[in-house]
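Reopening this one. Same input as before:
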Amino acid sequence: MKKILFVFAFTSIFWPSKANSTTPVDSKKEEIEVNINLIDVKDDQVLVTVKAPKIKTSEITYSLPKTVPGTYSEDNYGRFIVDFKAYDAKGNLLTVSKTDDNTWSIKNAKTLAKVTYLVNDTFDTEKGRGFGKEDVFSPTGTNIDAGKNFMLNLHGFVGYFQDKKESPYKVTITHPETLWGATSMIDKDASKTVDVFEMPLYSELLENPIMYSKPDYTTFTVDGMEIQIVVYSPTGKFTAESITPEMKTMMTAQKTFLGKVNSTKKYTVLLYLSTMTETDAKGFGALEHPTATTVVLPEMMPKDELVKSMKDVVSHEFFHIVTPLTIHSKEIQYFDYNAPKMSEHLWMYEGVTEYFANLFQINQGLITEDEFFTRIAEKIDQAKTMNDTLPFTKMSANVLVEPYKDQYLNVYQKGALIGMCLDIQIRQSSDGKRGVLDLMHQLSNEYGVTKPFNDADLFAKITSLTYPEVGEFLTKYVSGPTPIPYYDYLAKVGVTKTSKKTPEGIFLKGQVPYIGVNHENKEIFVDPKKELTVFYTNLDLKGGDIILAINDKPYSLDNIYEMITESQKWKENDPITIKIKRDGKEQIIKGTVKLPYIDTDGLEATDASKAKLREAWLKG
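Same output, byte for byte:
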């Protein structure tokens, strides 16, 4: 999973049982038949009907997940279910009691024929701007917008009967003819209004999201893998075709970087673009699946920013093919949706994945060495803001509860840096011949999709496959409380810390804005509560000034991201004209750009004697 923080959107992997998605349905087991009705939508609710298998007990439970792989949060999808009913074969209601947020207990279960319930979507509830305590992270959530879009993360629609998760599932979805269901699953019904999907396990079903919308997709093949890019853009601002060239370039580079690691033949990217209205998605980022990624981003983004974000999040999710899809522990293999036990190894599942998502770009020539070093320096700086003495394995095993869950975002910072330091150490110990990707190849051969490892045994296995100093690093810095001396490891490849003056954001200082928005009229104003930087004081801009246009281009909430993006291109002393409204009167301000600067730490290759090892690290 990858979360992205957008200030104006909000104030701030685990995998289940890993059967291959091509596993045939076991005809000897009774299917769980599910019908999802996307045609007769009333009050923004979707009717789900589940035909019960033969029940041999007098009482049975039906549950929706409390937690699903990749979310690291207790979302309780059962709270979005209403009007749950159970029937016998004659249509008589059976006695049902709700035992917790996600589970219903059904009496006289031997006579149970079916259950029905209505599903509310999660996008409507994101009052906390996508990351409130009760919010479901949008890429893991659901959307019901009758006749326009349905985002079916199936854990929000389909549950399981007690002890029946190993049964095959047959899901029939009726939908408007104008909407097409994008998924990596195979539709076994040729009808234009009915789709039928069969999966051998409940866990596999949940790993295959479906997005229904007006058809807008492209397909291309990279090294034997069919890749499908699907876009839902409410206003039509973006199309799948408009972003496919960049996606193809990136995913081709990823496949080249990965080499022989390839666990799937079809991969689908589902991009949902949010209007950011009160009832639309506000938690931006992505959620990975073995054969798909769901991505949610704001539609108002400029294309170059959208493509950049897609590169960052999709590359991260795609690399989960390596881990945890292929390499994972028993906690993940036998994931319990309603009483999950978490693995200790988020440093690998998310950290190494995030490291690969950056390393492959320098390795394949998509970014420069300076850009790569800037990213690493930023991760070091951001990791400093987290608890650096908390053992990473302890945080990982307890990530669902406080105070550990507040440290989760460090998987993208310190977790990635752990991957970097391991890579450098292996490169040094092998005289540049091997790196952490080679280790992942070895682990994938040792374990694999259907063969998990014991959590407690992983470090010993890695040490046996590499070098003693690698084991020492894992023990001291990953399972121990000692902060990692990043610059010592970077010095091994001739990279040293530097200090430099860096331009600060004009409208954003990190994630803190200097501007605000009046949502009633969409006007952008200078925040009167902020101490303004030299950019504002030089132009005599004041708190409360309404920004109407910059360099003759009008701006409002509808294109605020374009304004922010343009400001990132401004240079010192560039001429600038700003049209403002102050005290109800419009006026034009002309002047030059004065950028605010801050002292930052950077990285630079300075030791020529380490050039060969550095080249092996970055390009090997």
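So the earlier flakiness isn't reproducible anymore. For the record, The chain has 16 helices and 30 strands.
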